[in-house]
Design a protein that fits this description.
By secondary structure, the chain is of the alpha+beta class. Strands 2-1-3-4 form a four-stranded antiparallel β-sheet, with helices on one face.
Length: 65
Amino acid sequence: MHYVLLSSTGNMIDSYEEEAGARAALQRIVDAEPDAAEDIALVTYDESSLPTGDPQFAKVTAAPR
């Protein structure tokens, strides 16, 4: 599996081999910029490079500054 962070415009932000790393990176981005929660998605791809499941979005855990 491959894990990719995508912007709402479809641009790849980064890719990861491990889900935990991808989720941690997504959460760091959203913690630093809460407005990004709706604009950045984590998409999982299988070995054939096909997306699996629905995009996942981070939750804002800190109050906006």
